[in-house]
Design a protein that fits this description.
Number of strands of chain A: 2
Oligomer: heterotrimer
Organism (chain B): Paramylibacter ulvae
Largest interface: A-B, 82 and 82 residues
Radius of gyration of chain A: 22 Å
Subcellular location (chain B): Cell inner membrane
Shape of chain B: globular
Shape of chain A: flat
Transmembrane segments (chain B): 7-35, 55-76, 88-108, 114-131, 138-160, 172-196, 217-235, 241-263, 306-325, 337-358, 365-384, 390-412, 424-447
Bound molecules: sodium ion
Strand content of chain A: under 5%
Subunit structure (chain B): The complex comprises the extracytoplasmic solute receptor protein and the two transmembrane proteins.
Structural class of chain A: mainly alpha
Chains: A mainly alpha (224), B mainly alpha (464), C alpha/beta (312)
Family (chain B): Belongs to the TRAP transporter large permease family.
Radius of gyration of chain B: 23 Å
Amino acid sequence: MTFAKRWTDRLEENLIAFLLGMMTLMTFANVVARYVFNSNIFYALELTVFMFAWLVLLGASYAVKKSAHLGVDAIINMAGSRIRRILALISAVACIAYAFFLLKGAWDYWAPFANLYPTEGRWFPLGFDETTRGRGWYETQDIPVPFFLNWLSDVFNDGDAYEKLPKVVPYLVLPVSMALLLFRFLQAGWAVWTGKIDMMIVSHEAEDDVEEAAKRLKEQEEAM
Amino acid sequence: MEILILFVMVIGLMLIGVPIAVSLGLSSILFLLTFSDSSTASIAQTLFEAFEGHSTLLAIPFFILASSFMSTGGVAKRIIRFSIALVGHFRGGLAIASVLACMIFAALSGSSPATVVAIGSIVIAAMRQVGYTKEFAAGVICNAGTLGILIPPSIVMVVYAAAVEVSVGRMFLAGVIPGLLAGTMLMIGIYVMARIKNMPSGEWAGWGEVFQSLREAFWGLMLIAIIMIGIYGIPGVTSAIFTPTEAAAVASVYAFIVACFIYRDMGPLAARDGQERRNIFQKPQSLITAFWHEDTRRTLFDAGRLVVTLMFVIANALILKHVITDEQIPQQITSTMLAYGFGPVMFLIVVNVILLIGGQFMEPSGLLVIVAPLVFPIAMELGIDPIHLGIIMVVNMEIGMITPPVGLNLFVTAGVAGMSMMGVVRAALPFLAIMFLFLIMITYIPWISTVLPNAVMGPEVINN
Amino acid sequence: ACDEGEVVIKFSHVTNTDKHPKGIAASLLEQRVNDEMNGKACMEVFPNSTLYNDDKVLEAMLQGDVQLAAPSLSKFEKFTKQFRIFDLPFMFKDITAVEAFQASDAGQAMLDSMQKRGLQGLGYWHNGMKQMSANKPLLVPTDANGLKFRVQSSDVLVAQMEAMGASPQKMAFSEVYGGLQQGVVDGQENTWSNIYGKKFFEVQDGTTETDHGILDYLLVTNIDWLNGLDADVRDQFLTIVHEVTETRNKESTAVNQAAKESVIAAGGVVRELTAEQRQAWVDAMKPVWAKFEGDVGTDNIEAAQKINMMSN
Ligand code: NA
Ligand code: NA
């Protein structure tokens, strides 16, 4: 259990680091291409932007796991533990509802690009809308298809070769990340229910850094 | 009326501890499902569009990364030394040097809390050591740290530019004079206080120390040059080299190189386990291994995590923006406000008040995403320069960070200095007066914001 | 806001409402639909990309979240590559030839060519012929050698720039003015109304009247939505659409002409090409045609060329 936990932590952390690193290098390479070689990686911008979306959307569920999402804790810090627990439970329900609606929306958005059917029903999925036209043919703007994805055209485009990467690929992150997000919010909700945690947020973006900085400062003062 | 329900819901959810991003997103979804015909798929589409359609926002992860490499790299230490060498000998010199250090660090970093952490963690101790009170030290840092978002580069400016589609380069230039002005006003304020209260002054260590410390800090300061020359060029010498987004990416790569290979505060050449730092000839393979060294991975991950939480808020704020646009609420507000005969002065006061109140609840960039589209059309009708409006908003965000009950810099300073929130609030108060004076100047003297961008880039083209 | 029982028609576009040819046409359409179809239909216009940009609006349309849009013709290359004909350099001699082609059987067939994928073209909306500007004089294609040109995402336009020996660059539209001025890119191509409206001429050495390409828009709707309307509502709506299209297209030449004159009046340099110089451009671009002939269809190219000859 702890091994699996550590392993997924590591995987998610490396993915976050990797995506950010690749975004930076890709953009940097494009500058070099332009100024040193008077050339251009035309798809660099679009590819970087997709990596950006993958980074944040996949990272969002990791942030839930680590209770790292930003929030306002002024009120809950004033509340007694009973109220605090109730508020945390309400928060958990809100988060689960959010992830649920977004998962439905993400599926509805992505499915046609995979020639699948979106769900019917406004608030809740009530079956599939089989009148929807497939959009497997829909391509991104600039990104060429890497050779190892050539099989996509057979699956999604009746064998017609793609000139550009089909949208089904970059948008896949939506249903995947929202499913993960729902899963992590359900876990967090359970942790609140069983009393393991009493809030799902941090109050500001620099909480970890501040802790470290405070420690450094304290050490300096003690040395004085 | 509907809009009121929406905002009450957003704020209500936030106050009970729902993550800001979820408060924004869930309220928008419920609002859309209830009042509009649009699909839930359009929400997911907007979430992805936050990235796909706003390539200017790409500057945010890159500036955060550059700043992370710079903080890890001990650049702050070198900047502080340089600042002390320059102005430390005045009365209240260490405090004045701290402001200067914040200004310089602000030119490397796009965020205010990052500035407080980097500079504050060092100078607060130093100031106490020479006899300042902890409260005074915290007040100085808490205020000067807000310059992080006013002096370019600035994450908040990138968000504003993306939200209302003005040029990021123009916004950055617009922040230069106000940033220098605010810094100078703070320094003068401190100097006056120092004279009255007879605060300590340091020794003038001579030009030797100035040059020595400048040489030490040089590689860090070069980053500012790379960003500014890269975006704007030098007239007669070089044209610009990259867009603001690319500048941010180049800055990250540069900061990585400086931290790993020049300062060697991190990466394979850094001093560790009692061993001195090594040079590249002793360990040439580090040119390659630095890319996946544990320190690099850690810095990328830490920056990435910050990007995730910040951008998730911004993306959800963009969902809210989409939903209110879909319901044509900005138009309604514009026509209502114009019908009441709002002039520019009244309008700007209202904007200031909205932002100062909103800043109590919201992460600044998220707030901007929501407020900008609501007030921007009115501002255009009233003939207010969009760049000027942007700077007003940024300065409001700064003040929001240092006013109770909730303020980013208050939290961060309290955390770093180990003080209570109220303690920091009281400490920040005298300087807050200076910032308010500054806000009034910025609001009613558009020239301060617009003269530099207009001189360098020509008058603003208003597209709408 | 719309009343209960009215068909809601959301029209999302990316320009202003009162200066740009597309924005003016959209405003006129909005006004006429809301006046003449009051009680039956109601149109809401979302200008300035406030709701969707041109890439996302077609997705939203297929999803049923938007009913009308008018992206530039290159955006439809994803739906059918036939639309590449409008991006091919020097395919059309002038805006009259463009108009004749669009009105021809070939042009009208293209309106229906995306039905299978869910879109119905309603009409071509003109902006006008594209011109080229750069930070140095452009008289023959080799003048563009080694320059960096900002282009829209389109394989044809990328190939066109490469045929000139220039390096095509991608850049967000809001950064183009600054990019040209600061020298991140050297040149761009656009219609007179955009060159004037965005003030690109201020930050360029000059603009060459190449008329090398065309920037038009296609007014489109979701075909399932259109088919689902009551017959009388649909007919009345389509009639208004056609009338507005005709009225505004007649004005477009004048709008671009006025923009060109405004550029000159504001001190912008405008260069005209001699017949020889122009031929050099045409020759340089020919390989681009060959490259995309298969996508566009030889019959379409022939139809266009026949029209060019006829209007001689
Ligand atoms: Na800054
Ligand atoms: Na505040």
